[in-house]
Specification:
Blueprint lengths: L5 H27 L6 H8 L2 H21 L4 H28 L1
Helix pairs in contact: 1-3, 1-4, 2-3, 3-4
Amino acid sequence: MDCPSSEVVFLVFFLIIASGFDAYLTLINLQAVAVEANPVMDLAFRHGTAFFVAVKMALTAVGVYLLSVHQAFRMGRAGLRLLSISYVFLLVYHSLLLLLVQ
């Protein structure tokens, strides 16, 4: 793998941090009123919160790693950018859901 560009390094860190916030906000919403729509993550949640967070973070990390090692390809960079934008919208959604529930 080539040396990662500064953009890729930023996106990788952003995505890992966003994934952590997503896991945290998901747990808060699940404890309030929400239902996990993803059947794989619902199964993980039934095994406990630590297992849920570990699975959620591991799946994100694998995807981010695969995209980052393909940074030389247009689709690799585009995937990181699209995933970052998706996480922004997801975190906004979680935040709005929290505001509506309280």
